Amino acid sequence: MKFNDLVIDLSQRSVILGGERVKLTPTEYDLLKILATNADKVITQRQLLQQVWGGHHSESESHYLRVYNSHLRKKLEEDPTRPKLIVTESGIGYRFVTPE
């Protein structure tokens, strides 16, 4: 999957940004993979919790998502405080925005 200078190689479980390999934890990678394979669609917090961590999770565990998305933004975003790639849809979930 290629999004401008971001390349996600699903078969190798690797992420390249601007020609440099980005080191992600398995959880960060799984979260990014779900968001990127559903680019431009809102993925609910519940869906992400189930797909990344498995089992039944409640919305009260959404702090996991905030922490891991923060880590991803620091590694992938130009300005993590103003994300353009992984955006929060308040009260719903997250969206991976396809770069223009």
Automatic annotation (TrEMBL):
Entries under Gene3D superfamilies matching the protein: Winged helix-like DNA-binding domain superfamily/Winged helix DNA-binding domain
Xref: InterPro entries: OmpR/PhoB-type_DNA-bd (IPR001867), Sig_transdc_resp-reg_C-effctor (IPR016032), WalR-like (IPR039420), WH-like_DNA-bd_sf (IPR036388)
Keyword DNA-binding annotated: yes
Pfam families assigned: Trans_reg_C
GO CC terms in record: cytosol; protein-DNA complex
GO biological process, one term: regulation of DNA-templated transcription
Domain (OmpR/PhoB-type): residue spans on this chain: 1-98
Record keywords: DNA-binding, Transcription, Transcription regulation
One MF term in the entry's GO annotations: transcription cis-regulatory region binding
Keyword Ligase: no
DNA-binding region ranges: 1-98
Protein name (database record): Two-component system KDP operon response regulator KdpE
